[in-house]
Amino acid sequence: MENSIKICMGSSCYSRGNQENLEHIERYLSERQIDCSVDLRGSRCEGLCSEGPIVEINGQIHGGVNADTIEQLLDQQLILQ
């Protein structure tokens, strides 16, 4: 099963922290050498601006994601073989 991460890059989520979250995600994947087995993509807007910043991991939407929670979410949500 391939893992997928979709990060909202709409103006609200971007300005509320998804720019930094993207950097954390890329570093996390690179450090664990799993960047080639995870489909990482951005989206324009998920329509959940009031809950942002939004990150979707394997189809599960997470709101209010920040630098303190992103690594824990990735540890919990990514399915690694």
Description of the molecule:
The protein has one domain (3-77): Glutaredoxin, CATH 3.40.30. The chain is 36% helix and 22% strand. The protein has two helices and four strands; from the N terminus they run E-H-E-E-E-H. The protein has helices at 11-31, 70-77, and strands at 3-8, 38-43, 55-57, 60-62. It has a four-stranded mixed beta sheet, covered by helices on one side. A hairpin with a 2-residue loop joins strand 3 and strand 4 (60-62). The protein starts with a strand and ends with a helix.
Features:
Glutaredoxin; single chain; four-stranded mixed sheet; alpha+beta; 36% helix; globular; 2 helices; 81 residues
CATH superfamily: Glutaredoxin
Mind telling me the CATH class? Answer: Alpha Beta
Q: How many beta strands in the DSSP annotation?
A: 4
Q: How many separate domains?
A: 1
Reported by name, the CATH topology is Glutaredoxin
CATH architecture: 3-Layer(aba) Sandwich
Count of individual helical segments: 2
Tertiary shape: globular
Task: Write down the secondary-structure element order.
Answer: EHEEEH
Judged by helices, strands and strand pairing, the structural class is alpha+beta
Over all CA atoms, what is the radius of gyration?
A: 12 Å
Poorly predicted ranges: none
